[in-house]
Amino acid sequence: MSYSPDSRTLATTSRDTTTRLWNTVTGAESEVLEGHEAAVVSATFSPSGATLTTTSHDNTARVWEVRGGEELHVLRGHDHFVTSAVYSPDGSTVTTTSTDRTARVWDPESGEELHTLRGHSGPVTSVVYSPDGSTVTTTSTDRTVRVWDSESGGQLHVLEGHRGKVLSGAHSPEEGTLTTVGNDGAILVWRLG
């Protein structure tokens, strides 16, 4: 599930291959987004709330217009399940994660793939942008955290310290601090400055 930035729309995903948009004021269904060919596992609104990116076990992500529900782009490139999508703070890019061991950076306006972030030896479990959007951080079942330059797609850091799968990461609102959590029970805080 995901709320729009103004909290007036809720997106829900389903194994029935659809994403449904709901008006949170009235409770009424406003759109049914159809196009995926397998379970839809995540939905993420752009910072403006005008578009939504969904990810699916059909190995694609899709960008939709929220008002009207039109499918704008099918993001193809992953070789296995696409598990999540996160927009950059300014909405100019969206990064998808996959069990194919990559994350991919896309232009949501054109649907063009800008970068493939390769380096993990296991499924990528999460992605997060730094507050200023200059870096993208990925976590993986391979026990590593990787920090990438969002402009070039180049790898900047490999952070090792977890003894199990790294499940997610979060940047503090102030630049330079990243926190990760793993299934090893550890919460690690990293200084990136």
Automatic annotation (TrEMBL):
Signal peptide: none
Keyword annotations of the record: Repeat, WD repeat
Record CDD domains: WD40 (cd00200)
InterPro entries (alphabetical): WD40/YVTN_repeat-like_dom_sf (IPR015943), WD40_PAC1 (IPR020472), WD40_repeat_CS (IPR019775), WD40_repeat_dom_sf (IPR036322), WD40_rpt (IPR001680)
Mapped WD repeat ranges: 1-32, 33-74, 75-116, 117-158, 159-193
Protein name: WD40 repeat domain-containing protein
Annotated source species: Nocardiopsis eucommiae
Source taxonomy: Bacteria, Bacillati, Actinomycetota, Actinomycetes, Streptosporangiales
